[in-house]
Amino acid sequence: MTKHPLTVIFQSLLLLAVGFSQAAQDSAQVSSAPAQQADAPRALELTEETTDDTVLPGDDEIMVVDPPGEDSDDADTLPALELEEEVVADSSSTLPTDEDIVLTDGGDPKAASDTVVDSLPPIETMPTVLEFVEAEYPAELHRKGIEGTVLLDVLVSDSGTVDSVAVVRSLHPVLDSSAADALRRFSFSPAIAGGEPVPVLLQYEYRFSLIEVVEELEKYVNFEGRLLERGTRKPIADAMVVINFVDTVSDTSLPVPFSTYRERIGRFEEQYLEEDRLVTLTDSLGYFRFYSLPTCTIEVTAPLPGYEQFLEQEAITSGEKLQATYFVQRVSYSDYEIVVYGKTEKKEVSRHQLSINEVKKIPGFGGDAVKVVQALPGVARPTFGSGQVIVRGARTWDSEFLLDGVTIPQLYHFGGVKSTYNSDALSSVDLYPGGFGTRYGNAIGGVVEITGRAGDSERYHGKADASFLDASFLAEGPVGSKVSVLASARRSYVGDLLAFAVDNIPMIDLPITVAPFYWDYVLRTDADFNDNHDAFLTLFGAKDGLELIVPGIRGGSPIVDDAVDRIKQEIMFNMALIGWNWDSGDRFSNLLRYAVTRAHTASSIFGIARWNADMWMHQVRDELGVGLHPALELKLGADMQFIPYEQESVFPVRSNEFLFDTLEATYGLVGGYLNGEWKPIEQLLIMPGIRYDYYLELDHNGGVVPEFWEYHSFDNDGGISAEPSARLTTRWEIIEGHTAKFSVGNYNQTPQPQGLSTHETFGNPNLPTTKAAHYVGGYEWQITDLLFTDVQLYWNRQWDIPEFETETDLTGEDFSFSETQRFYPEGRGRMRGLELLIRHDQGERFFGWLAYTLARSERYDRAKDRFVLFGQDQTHNLQLVGSWRLPEDWEAGCRVRFVSGNPYTPIIGSYFDARNRAYVGVPGKENSARNDPFFQVDARIDKKFIFDRFIMSLYVDIQNLSWFFYKSPEFLISNYNPYDIKEQQEDRQPIAYPFVPSVGVSAEF
Amino acid sequence: MCGLSMSRIRRLCGRTLAISIPFLMLCGVNFPTRYDRIETDRVRSLGFVFSSAEAAPTDTVQVRSYYAGEEVDSVRWRVSLDYRFTLMGNDTALAAVSLDTIAVPGSDTLKTGVGGFYDYATVGFVVPRDVIRNAAIIPEDWHTLLPEEIQDSIPDQVRSLTKDDMIDFLESVAFADSATLAALATPSSQGPGAGAVSGDSTFSIMALTGMLAQLFTTEIIVYADAFSGGYEYNTRFAYTIRYNRLLREKLAVLGVAENTISYNINPKVGWIGIYKVDKDSLFSFDPLENTGYGYTLYRLYKDTTLGDWASGPVGGDSTKVILDADTIPIDKGYSYFLAADSAIEHLDTVIVATTQKIDTSAENLYYDWFYQPEPVPGVHPDSIMILNNANRASTAYIFPPVNDTQSSYPFSVWLMAYDQSLGDRLRPNGFAYAAARGVLKMTEEYRRALKKSPAPGLSQPE
């Protein structure tokens, strides 16, 4: 031991001199009482706690205490003074006798006082220990746990030496002797009475303390470890790690009994004792350490909420440091994070935000979170393999698809198989089915915005996934303290598998070969510079390739394409997106995005048609937020696109010729918007906004006044190809949990299909923007923390829709072959509907929703001068989605859909086109018939296998379980003769959506 | 971003779809009838064959509409001389009237009564002279029909001519008598088209005639509405009218090579037969490419009017045998292909799409096969015979009988062969028709094997 906190305490001092009682009466502090007899011996009691090291007590540590008495006010007895925590006052002690000293003999101290006290002067100065000698504390005794005090009478001479020592109360013979020997070698300053040194008789208590033996115990780490979440290897921070000592006798080298040792190490910093168990806490990275553990067997556990109890037995070995990593299993691995809806402030009337982790488990989407928007209210059921996103009766191209605020060329791989952006690299998916604010432009339908996420800034994480379709990986982790990186890539191999099977399995002799493939990648780097600035760079790209080979088919001409026996399609894009966010912390914030995209499209159809297109797309978006007042915030934004576009195409036209065309054009827009968020009262949010968009590719006179309908009564020409928009959104929380909302706005976009509709030869270069007005009203009710409902009514109108020429355009007197191939801006649309969403957020076991849409979408038939049903009009669209977490890391999901069948145009007759060798159907009234309802049940089962360092997941996703009892018609296919003249009925048969089971496996760490 | 409306693409995609039918069947599609199988209870139009693949104004043309299946009671002919369409494929035929207005009196005939095997209706008509002049699909600014780079090569004085001016000139050549042609041969002369074009222009136009002739082309729609058992079966054909035949003849007089102007003629079918190839599970066969297989060609039909050309392929060694026989033995270990030869080595002149210049190029020939097993009570026709001719090639795979109710199954086949070439504006298609009959006779070994192991993938007897 290096330091000895010696507490040599004079526990009590008994004045044996006669007459001292008066002084005691005068003052409770004996030390201040005058000595009445200088040469009279005094009796004192001292207490010594022994240790290996000895430090002499100072003067202030030698205290005079009152002798015990029945009454402290009694003038004949000295009152006992309590010092510190311990008081030893043994008036019955037998003191050693000496000829110069008047000893108490165990008789009545009062009687003794009566005989001598009056003749002695009061002690003026108490003796102090000048030299302390430590008593020997034999190891075999403190190892046996023998501790306590030895009470001794010590006669201190007037020179301060110890004249004699006598054991008053024994502890152990050896220790008694050891204490006496030590005391004899003590040196004191003499007691002073009457100005002269006088001998005194002290009673000294010498303590042998076990705890002091190990007081200076060396602190060293001999057990350290780490707590990680099993499977994910996620560090468990601030977790309690508990050691239970299984055996307490195995370590015979301990200097003190085990319990004393344990108590001692329990007082080390960073660990503590709790009910005989040693406890410590993990740091932020899950690390923990224990100090100076005895050699023994221990049980380690970590009681953690949300995790299963684990108990590991370990052996602590002398001279070795135990290192261990414990993987603690979560109670459930169904979700890594619980995202609670509704906690972020809602600022839109129609917005559905999806939590990535939960929606990936919805059956029927193959784990693709972006596709789940198709299960939300307002979104029509897409035709199988189409990848459509029909929002509130608007065509797919009427909606905008954004990644972190900028347009992406392609949301889905072909056919809607998978989204191009890996769902694992997303943080959220937002659907704005209508009535959205001025932040979004160039869309008259809805907006789907996906938001990428940063890589994990605390640990490395990886995931690999494989299914029948494709395989992918994701890796992420920190690079330094402020930068994180996320990388993901995916490639399909279904085409390769098919090709392999065709080549190698004799039984498979397909007349066609379909070789589709796709890949995509995401590389995102995030930097968090400080509290005010953060930035990210996303590199994102995808490619779709398809070859449908029909061996032997005689296609077109090699001058179009050498591959006359196949259809080829290739779509590829790469984009770089830079984002910078700034928040001043008080009033200002700014959001900047710049993206450059390179896209390439190449297609060829049997050597009959071919086209290649390349484009660069530069996009800049900046939004400055200014908090003018706690209740008022303005957002000023700029939204720009610049798209140089080149295309070369060859295709046959009706006149049997090949048409060679090259196109160089620049598309794009320059838009600006101002948006306000005003809260006149806490419960009311009003968001007015204006926006102005200039379209580079158009050549028409845009409006001055925002158009909410077709203005015929006045001239609204603004002189340039630009359109104003005005939008207003309000939300009013009537009472807590009940919110009414309303929005109105007008919208515009470039004519679609972009490029073709304004093409010099095939389109109409003078087309105006396509316009729309949205009117939305709704009501939200947060029924419980988990249960939420949203009802919306909408009424949308579209006009100036480019409409392709019809047969009626050929019948007029002014028909001209060279001038009729045009789009006419005379299309109109009207959509209205009711949407209901009842959603149960992720609870302990369940999440899901019910989505119902009652809708009607129509288009104006220019030829017939009437509105007809839109081809994707679905009167009823009911979807039930649920996912249940089950024990043992099972999870089950179910999705049920009931949707009205799509309208179609019936065939009322047919004729044989003998020249073109084909039967041609005679169409009836457009979209006047409707397919039978679509009903489908999908199911999905997930099972996780938790290993220490990774998690393996298996899933079975079965689409269309209902196929066995109901064939949902997807579309109709005609026989060679679409109208069976003999039977006088359509010779059409519905193509049912097939039964599609799929199996996938993933591993993540 | 282009709209492809060409019917050819539709057909190709349709064929691709047809090939995919086995997959679609997994989705529940199972039509009771097939395009290439002739039903006995309804009329099937096989197509039109015009006496010439194209016609010029004032030409007299005979058109024959072929039928199979149920017997036709009568045929009504109609015509639309105002047929309009656009580049992107929308079309409409206006003012369809009875063909009687232009028909050759007494030419309307209907031949039936041979069990639907060789039924046809015929009519002759005269192409009105003004049909091109009145064609709405030929714009006043006729040169806009040409690609821009070609337009630039046309002299301004020619480009400035109106549609009527150009037609006047073309007709002046097309209908010119020999004296006029001689006058035209002199550059300084003022020919019949003098009112429209100057002499210099005449020569400029004549130099471009081959290219310009395609611009002054139109189509008329000929309808044949067949009636049978109270039902009406409609067939139509877009027939190409242009001056090319006349121009070709007249310019030849002037010393211009015939091939300068594109002109199409009908193909011919030399013979129809069935290859029995010494190899099983063979799904495509071309005797010129798959030379390693022995075969026997059972020739069911040949056009004797074609002489030696129609005698069929050369047999060569002993493994390649040609028999004029209508009974084909069906045996194990062989593959069967319906085949025809219309390999007329004619090279029609066409406009080459890339250069818009006249050139001689081989056409593509396509074959529409139809068949009909002779009905057997209680036996589904698919159990007797199925053809696979998705590529419309000259050979079509035959799935042989899988039903042993009878040892022999008589059948009929029909063929419509046609030519096609892309690039020449409104280029006509030439058609040829042929038909034959035969018998599939199963050997005993084949029947025993059939009893032992019925083909589960094929339709079973109803």
Task: Summarize the model shown.
The complex is a heterodimer of chains A (1005) and B (462). Chain A is mainly beta and 1005 residues long.
How does this model look, in words?
- The complex is a heterodimer of chains A (1005) and B (462).
- Chain A has 8 helices and 53 strands.
- The longest helix of chain A is centred in the N-terminal third of the chain and has 12 residues, at 173-184.
- Chain A is elongated and about 150 Å long.
- In chain A, strand 40 and strand 41 (846-861) form a beta hairpin.
- Chain A has 1005 residues and is mostly beta strands.
- Chain A has a 22-stranded antiparallel barrel.
- The longest helix of chain B is centred in the middle third of the chain and has 15 residues, at 199-213.
- The model of chain B is unreliable at 1-6, 188-197 and 456-462 (pLDDT under 50).
- Helices cover 17% and strands 33% of the residues of chain B.
- The chains are: A mainly beta (1005), B alpha+beta (462).
- The interface between A and B is large, with 78 and 82 residues.
Characteristics of this structure?
heterodimer, A: 1005 residues, mainly beta, 53 strands, elongated, B: alpha+beta, six-stranded mixed beta sheet, 9 helices, 17% helix, 33% strand, disordered N terminus, disordered C terminus
Strand-helix topology:
The complex is a heterodimer of chains A (1005) and B (462).
Chain A: E1 9-12, H1 20-26, E2 42-50, H2 109-116, E3 123-125, E4 128-131, H3 139-143, E5 148-156, E6 162-169, H4 173-184, E7 187-189, E8 191-193, E9 196-198, E10 200-208, H5 210-213, E11 221-229, E12 240-245, H6 258-265, E13 272-274, E14 277-281, E15 287-291, E16 296-301, E17 311-316, E18 322-328, E19 352-355, H7 356-359, E20 400-403, E21 406-407, E22 426-432, E23 447-452, E24 461-467, E25 470-479, E26 483-492, H8 494-504, E27 513-514, E28 517-528, E29 533-549, E30 566-583, E31 588-605, E32 609-629, E33 632-652, E34 658-681, E35 684-695, E36 722-735, E37 738-749, E38 770-782, E39 787-804, E40 823-840, E41 846-861, E42 866-869, E43 876-886, E44 890-899, E45 903-904, E46 907-913, E47 918-923, E48 929-930, E49 934-946, E50 951-959, E51 969-980, E52 985-992, E53 996-1004
Parallel strand pairs in A: 2-10, 11-18, 20-23
Antiparallel strand pairs in A: 1-2, 3-8, 4-7, 5-6, 5-10, 8-9, 11-15, 12-14, 12-16, 13-14, 16-17, 19-22, 20-21, 22-23, 24-25, 24-53, 25-26, 26-28, 27-29, 28-29, 29-30, 30-31, 31-32, 32-33, 33-34, 34-35, 35-36, 36-37, 37-38, 38-39, 39-40, 40-41, 41-42, 41-43, 43-44, 44-49, 45-48, 46-47, 49-50, 50-53, ...
Chain B: H1 7-19, H2 21-26, E1 43-50, E2 60-69, E3 74-80, E4 82-85, E5 91-94, E6 97-98, E7 109-111, E8 119-126, H3 148-151, H4 156-159, H5 163-174, H6 178-184, H7 199-213, E9 217-228, E10 231-242, H8 244-253, E11 271-277, E12 295-302, E13 320-323, E14 327-330, E15 335-341, E16 349-352, E17 357-360, E18 364-373, E19 386-388, E20 395-399, E21 408-420, E22 431-442, H9 444-452
Parallel strand pairs in B: 12-13, 14-22
Antiparallel strand pairs in B: 1-2, 2-8, 3-6, 3-9, 4-5, 7-8, 9-10, 11-12, 11-15, 15-20, 16-17, 18-21, 19-20, 21-22
